[in-house]
Amino acid sequence: MAGLQSGAPTPQEMTVHSQSKVLQISFSDGAEFRIPFELMRVYSPSAEVMGHGPGQEVLQSGKKDVGLDGLEPVGNYAVQPSFSDGHNSGIFSWDYLYFLGSQQDKLWSDYTARLAEAGVTRDTPMPEKAGKSCGSH
User: Fold this and answer.
1) How many structural domains is the chain composed of?
2) Is residue 111 a part of any domain in this protein?
3) For residue 83, what are the domain limits?
4) Does residue 48 form part of some domain?
5) Does residue 82 belong to any structural domain of this protein?
6) Which pLDDT value is given to residue 132?
């Protein structure tokens, strides 16, 4: 099934912490992660963020205070969050959530380095989209 590798850990419990802005997930292998909403948003597996292929990723900025308005199940393999900035097209498989949780130190480091390279911060608003359109967003 898409989003699940055979024998991969699956979530046993998921808690949305709105005030601290983290998704707490306990997995079947005993791992537990507190994934910040901002990290989920800037690494959303959507075409809007990831593009349609390698090298087409879109750096997300201004997501420091993003909230989570909803979290809908997708079959028995994923969830689809609705973020407070209107983004709701990413489908987060159990494997991807485990990846985000287990690699968050490296992902944060990579993200802040890309922001610095672009001369923006976590607070810098995203530039307006001008004439850019894609049917998958």
Assistant:
1) 1
2) yes
3) 11-118
4) yes
5) yes
6) 44
CA distances from 130 to 52, 66, 113, 121 (A): 18, 23, 26, 21
The whole-angstrom separation of Cα 45 and Cα 1 is 17
Radius of gyration over alpha carbons of the chain, in Å? 15
Task: Please report whether residue 130 resides in a domain.
Answer: no
Give yes or no for a contact between 10 and 26, defined as CB atoms under 8 angstroms apart: no
Tens of pLDDT, residue by residue over 24-44, are 999 999 999 999 999 999 999
The tokens describing 74, both together, are 């997708």
pTM over 0.85, yes/no: yes
Q: What are phi and psi of 20, to 5 degrees?
A: -85, -5
Calculate the average pLDDT of the chain: 89
- Residue 135: is its pLDDT beyond 80? no
CATH of the domain at 108: 3.30.2020.30
Instruction: Report the alpha-carbon distance of residue 74 to residue 92 in Å, rounded.
Output: 9
State the CB neighbour count (10 A cutoff) for residue 44.
Answer: 23
